[in-house]
Design brief:
Layout (H helix, E strand, L loop, with lengths): L1 H8 L5 H21 L4 H19 L5 H21 L4 H6 L3 H25 L2 H7 L2 H12 L9 H28 L1
Length: about 180
């Protein structure tokens, strides 16, 4: 996403954003060295997100109405996963609380997606791409709180990505402080 912003819209990164990109690149590079390649899922996301958001901007469909069209187009596939997925009617019968939790999860996911689309319109493409590291970093923190562990060979990957996120937080804080001083 950062590269796309630079190449298509000639966006410039601040010094701290450049530092964050370098940290994230080292973290991703470590993971590639550790595994020897990219997983196909990673490539789909890494190549698909920039294409998706570029198309949305070029078609001037980067608004909430466009999001509803996207969701409508995805509905058949989503319904197929609901019917064919790992959760059976026996699972629902055994855990009736899921009837209430699943819609709540849907509402939370929808709110997150609306926020994501709104951010894609409001932020420079490069910064939007950098901020995409925040969600996975937070998910790892939640996983750790729930008892998951990180292998010793994975710490450099997560460490550098968390450093990138920390640098972005630092830059955001500095920006807010500067804005308040102007007022």
């Amino acid at each position: 996403m950062v590269l796309t912003g630079k190449l298509l819209w000639n966006e410039r990164l601040s010094r701290l954003q450049t530092v964050a990109v370098c940290f994230a690149a080292v973290g991703v590079g470590h993971e590639v060295l550790r595994h020897g390649s990219f997983a196909w899922e990673t490539l789909v996301v890494a190549l698909g997100y920039p294409v998706y958001f570029v198309i949305r901007r070029r078609c001037r469909n980067d608004h909430l109405g466009g999001l509803w069209v996207d969701m409508l187009l995805q509905s058949p596939v989503a319904l197929w996963f609901v019917w064919q997925g790992p959760l059976s009617s026996a699972d629902l019968a055994a855990h009736p609380g899921l009837y209430g939790l699943i819609p709540v999860l849907g509402a939370i996911s929808a709110a997150a997606l609306v926020s994501y689309v709104t951010a894609s319109r409001s932020l420079p493409f490069s910064l939007f791409g950098l901020l995409s590291y925040v969600e996975p970093a937070l998910l790892v923190v939640v996983s750790l709180l729930l008892g998951e562990t990180i292998g010793s060979d994975q710490w450099p990957t997560y460490g550098f990505i968390w450093l990138a996120v920390a640098v972005l937080i630092l830059e955001g804080a500095r920006h807010l402080i500067r804005q308040r001083r102007r007022i």
